[in-house]
Specification:
Layout lengths: L2 E2 L4 E5 L5 E7 L2 E6 L2 E6 L16 E8 L2 E7 L8 E5 L3 E5 L14 H11 L5 E6 L5 H7 L2 E7 L2 H13 L7 E5 L2 H11 L5 E4 L4 E3 L5 E3 H14 L7 E6 L6 H11 L6 E10 L6 E11 L4
Helix pairs in contact: 4-5
């Protein structure tokens, strides 16, 4: 039976040649994306910045309410259609200033992509699934180990994920691109008796499916995780769950996985994702996570 590790785990991204956290503080963060630098809101940066000035190409100025909104303000030229970046040996993707304040991928997920690879080892025929797969950098990372099912409710995001895979020269990889509601799709996979070696899911706080389905994290997550569990068995390797921008502890996610995965071997861990600032040891927390891994797989 799986064991819940109570002490939280910290997964830290240290940046790479295409991305760097330059500084943070006073509710904002200053980042480098290739040749371009940006300022974005970051409520968890409650300390003072280390640098006296932030010379940025653009800044996202948030709306006045808690529901989000806002707009980009530019002081220097930025490519409207985005610019190419990479991660690792083969993942390539287009970074772009989106209306949702991010730049088309989540750099704090880099240690997660590494961790998934460690769980799959030297596998070449693994079956994995990326739920809420967005623009597909995680899908690219998984595709070297076998077939990947990429699921996202946004037709635009799936189209961008396919373009990113083509940019990386991975069009020939075994990737299924699906515009689907995550809950409906996993439920169908359970009815079909399918199994996977690994699943990664990054659900939003709130969202809508392609047919208007409403997703609310606190309501939908237990059933979704339960269905994911039914797609895994004692020979599977992992499940990784990340959650952003919620008033919730990682221990709550760990408790959910501990209950749902009780019948499988391995361990359940929980903790924080964080990014380390360049030139200092300061860590900026970005998300909470829980993960199940099976050393026997």
């Amino acid at each position: 039976m799986s064991e819940l590790v109570r002490d939280p785990v910290l997964m830290v991204g240290e940046g790479w040649d295409a991305y760097c956290l330059l500084d943070s503080g006073h509710g904002r963060k200053f980042e480098q994306y290739g040749d371009y630098r940006f300022i974005r809101p970051e409520p968890q940066a409650m300390w003072s910045p280390r640098l006296e000035t932030w010379d940025a190409h653009g800044e996202f100025v948030p709306g006045s309410d808690e529901d989000g909104g806002g707009r980009w303000q530019y002081s220097k030229s930025v490519p409207r259609d985005g610019w190419e970046l990479g991660w690792g040996e083969e993942a390539r993707f287009t970074a772009q200033c989106t209306p949702f304040r991010h730049l088309g991928f989540f750099p704090d997920m880099a240690p997660v992509w590494d961790w998934m690879g460690e769980q799959l080892g030297d596998a070449t025929n693994a079956e994995t699934m990326n739920l809420f797969g967005y623009t597909g950098v995680g899908t690219q990372a998984l595709s070297r180990y076998g077939r990947v099912t990429h699921v996202d409710a946004s037709k635009k995001s799936v189209a961008q994920a396919r373009e990113n895979a083509a940019l990386a020269g991975l069009s020939g990889r075994r990737i299924r691109w699906l515009v689907e509601d995550a809950m409906k799709y996993t439920a169908r996979e359970v009815r079909r008796g399918r199994r996977y070696d690994g699943i990664i899911l990054d659900p939003p706080k709130f969202g809508r499916g392609p047919d208007g389905e409403v997703w609310r994290l606190e309501q939908g997550l237990p059933d979704l995780v339960s269905d994911c569990r039914q797609l895994l068995d004692s020979d599977s390797s992992f499940l990784f769950l990340t959650v952003y921008a919620v008033r919730m502890s990682s221990l709550a996610l760990g408790g959910l996985l501990d209950e749902v995965f009780a019948g499988l071997p391995g361990k359940v861990e929980h903790g924080d994702l964080a990014v380390q600032e360049d030139g200092s040891g300061r860590l900026l927390p970005t998300a909470i996570f829980a993960r199940w891994s099976n050393s026997r797989a």
